[in-house]
Amino acid sequence: MTKRLVVLFVGLALLGLLLSGCTSLFEPQSLLGPESIEIEQDYILAFNKLPSDIAETVTALGGSVRSVLEEIDAVLVTGDADFVAAVEGLKGLDVIIPDVRANWLPDIERVKLSPDHIGSDETYFADYQWDMLAIDAPGAWDAGYTGAGVRVAILDTGIDPDHPDLAPNLNAPLSTSFVPYEPFINDLNSHGSNVAGIIAAADNGLGVIGVAPNAEIVAIKVLDGSGSGDFGWLLAGLLYAVAIDADIVNMSLGAYMSHDGYVGYGDEAVYYGASAINGFINLVRKTLDYATQQGVLLVASAGNDALDGTGDSGLMHVPSDVGDCLVISATGPIGWAYSYDVDLDEFAYYSDYGPQIDFAAPGGNADFSLDLWYLDLVFNCYAGGWGWMGGTSQASPHVAGVAALIVEKNGGDMKPAQIERELRLSADDLGRPGRDTSFGHGRVNAAQAVGN
């Protein structure tokens, strides 16, 4: 198959807002200025111990309950100024958190394959998938491992349920949306479909193939078509993944928070108050730790702003930098379209780095002076088709896919720490010997992960 210049559109970077900071909460705190509570708004009430009658209490105080998150002692509510004032006196209340909406998508570039490019000789695009070669996924398939029997939940923008590469492995009955105005799993953004394809695009002789092409995928929609989502949707989606007995959860999303109370990065940062941000981060940490304790492996993208996780700009990336989850940086080639001998494992120019990085995986790279720069991105599913995307969003699902192969080989009762150990022992050590701030324990290797 020849690599021909495609008709493409490029979506400019959707640089994910990410969250930072975390301090202890010792007493109930109001986070809301008077101008913010004149009308009904959504909030998260976090307790040190959730009252058994919280639903009745909220109703009695003039609010309404959207969801009770018993596992993390929190409740999602809606109320006005009088309600906020009334709940501040509830016994055991830690903090009232505005249920803020943020853009969580950190993909760097997008290039959609034009339908005009798909000829009769190009129904299968394996020649574009340098990423599968980089992690030696074919070696794992040749050994007989494809992720069969493993359930991977994908917290994202949804999944295209009619996509020929995704439909065979999608558990539609279990899939759900937490976006109230998009009460369907259909992907209006393409990000979730791309992530899902990297994990488990079916081996069906057309399109692309995923790392674990027989794994079961579940769409848990926590972001809308613009890539935005409420804080509460992420929390509820994580707990739902645990409830449906997911083996692995992939979170190719993130938002920055600062220790001094800002959500966002740079000129787009919005102030919500340190207590609000810290309260939310505490809930994320509690939720991640709960999921891990229940036996679910959590995998998250590191972020795409080339920031140092030791505290560059005072920012923390959420959820990757919070709680118990694997944090994934990105690698990729430069000029792969021109020579198959290029290094597939260069550290991506955009990837966040630091001591928080656990593993690296293909996320794509780019030298925009090259005509075929987009071929150095990751090629996989798009809603309604196929295309290239780049970012740590694409790196994370490669690790989730390799983890699915490990679970298939060793049995579904593996603990997250055991899966992580197998990933660590089988990774290709890149950069400085041992764990480093760019590649973590190394770039994952699918064949070695299931080798004897």
What does this structure look like?
- With 452 residues, the chain is an alpha/beta fold.
- The protein has two domains: 10-18 and 103-449, Peptidase S8/S53 domain (Rossmann fold); 34-91, Alpha-Beta Plaits, CATH 3.30.70.
- The chain has helices at residues 54-60, 81-87, 130-134, 137-142, 191-200, 231-243, 274-293, 392-410, 416-426, 446-449; strands at 10-11, 41-47, 64-69, 74-79, 93-98, 101-103, 109-112, 151-156, 176-177, 216-221, 228-230, 248-251, 255-258, 262-263, 270-271, 297-301, 315-318, 326-332, 346-347, 359-362, 378-382, 385-390.
- Strand 3 and strand 4 form a beta hairpin.
- The two termini are 35 Å apart.
Helix and strand arrangement:
Layout lengths: L9 E2 L29 E7 L6 H7 L3 E6 L4 E6 L1 H7 L5 E6 L2 E3 L5 E4 L17 H5 L2 H6 L8 E6 L19 E2 L13 H10 L15 E6 L6 E3 H13 L4 E4 L3 E4 L3 E2 L6 E2 L2 H20 L3 E5 L13 E4 L7 E7 L13 E2 L11 E4 L15 E5 L2 E6 L1 H19 L5 H11 L19 H4 L3
Parallel strand pairs: 8-10, 8-12, 9-10, 12-16, 16-18, 18-20
Antiparallel strand pairs: 1-7, 2-4, 2-5, 3-4, 6-11, 7-22, 13-17, 14-15, 18-19, 21-22
Helix pairs in contact: 5-8, 6-7, 8-9
